[in-house]
Amino acid sequence: MRVAFASDDENETTRAVVAALVEDGHEVIRPDTAESWPDLGRFVGQAVVDGRADYGVVMCWTGTGTAIAANKVVGVRAALAWDPWIARGARLWNDANVLAMSLKRLAPDVAVEVLRAFLDVAEPDPDEAANIAALE
Ligand SMILES: O=C(CO)[C@H](O)[C@H](O)COP(=O)(O)O
């Protein structure tokens, strides 16, 4: 899949997430320049809404700022997740199209588990279709 990725800082956790995306065969779409977390969140959200990416992943210290910024793009459903169950639920019950994670609070192996749990859900639960449509 094509996954847009942006983070406003780099550490072992962000490097592990990008490495897992590449290892799993995804095309990683990244901004050309380092920007502020609001711009990075919008970049990823816009890439998803424009159809240049299938999903987005945003990271910042907390994950919250980039999630808020991505969610400002109409059509984005960004979810902040910190464990695989939350990430899977975000796809399954909310059809989230952008995953947000904290680069400060998630260990590299946990962030990769969260990422894979998110991307592993191909389709949302059809029982949630009306609720998801009501978000627009
Ligand atoms: O978590 C964040 C936003 O939610 C940022 O990563 C954190 O606030 C640091 O940002 P800056 O480097 O612009 O001070």
From TrEMBL:
Superkingdom, taxonomy of origin: Bacteria
Keyword Isomerase: yes
Key word Isomerase present: yes
GO MF entries: ribose-5-phosphate isomerase activity
Keywords: Isomerase
One GO process term, biological-process aspect: D-allose catabolic process
Family, as annotated: Belongs to the LacAB/RpiB family.
Name of protein: Ribose 5-phosphate isomerase B
Organism: Actinoplanes cyaneus
